[in-house]
Amino acid sequence: MDTGLTNKTVVVMASSKGIGKATALEFANEGATVILSSRGETSLREAAEEIKRLSGNEKIHYQTCDMSSSDDIAKLFREVHKQFGSVDILINNTGGPKAGGFEKVTDEDWYESFEKNLLSYIRTTRAVIPHMKENQFGRIINISSSSTKEVIDDLILSNTFRSGMVGLTKSLARELASSNILVNTIGPGRIETDRIIELDSVTAEKKGVSFEDITNYQKSLIPIGRYGQPEEFAKVVVFLASAANTYLTGQSLVIDGGLLKAL
């Protein structure tokens, strides 16, 4: 299938590792021009070099950006627009918020999570919409969490701000559809990344059991019987951004191996 991505410019946020990196690699495999971004320059450079090697695509670029910094976001997109003219596809992604229930998080945690996990997506989207409207083409994919469909215990910050992301996505999809800009949210279930290792470690410590006991239990709840791999998630992201998707917008999808019971 021709994905139509060869001449597209893609920005993937938080792409030095995990789901973001896997997504950048899938776009690179399809021949797109890919701009990676994250906070750490060393890990970002290494990720870009690895993606070039694995994909054979030399159109891989990177720039550091802290998603909680409005100045960093503005600088990133100024440089991207200067070098590449416009952004065809924006993949919004950032690390998950602090774990904890309502009584464990502070005002500072709420403010930090708002800026990092919701306002950052608003800022990046604001930066790309004018060019997308001018080109009458755009794809914006907001990577969220399975908590958009079913709340997760002890993740009050994620449950709150990821849900806000769904409202943002639906509203943008309706506002931008006439400009051929499609906007969707896609959430990972238990995809095997550093974030899942962190959450399983927190759960193991809280329950006073081994890390292996927790991971084995969690896998037993998934009908497919295992954690997903980042590349499996990334392939769905690429589909949503590809020429194969011309009508799906405003949706909130979850890639979870059948874990969630919610309709």
From TrEMBL:
CDD domains linked: BKR_like_SDR_like
SUPFAM superfamilies listed in its UniProt record: NAD(P)-binding Rossmann-fold domains (SSF51735)
Pfam families found in the cross-reference section: adh_short_C2 (PF13561)
PANTHER family attached to this UniProt entry: 3-OXOACYL-(ACYL-CARRIER-PROTEIN) REDUCTASE (PTHR42879), NADPH-DEPENDENT REDUCTASE BACG (PTHR42879:SF6)
Family as reported in the entry's similarity comment: Belongs to the short-chain dehydrogenases/reductases (SDR) family.
UniProt name for this protein: SDR family oxidoreductase
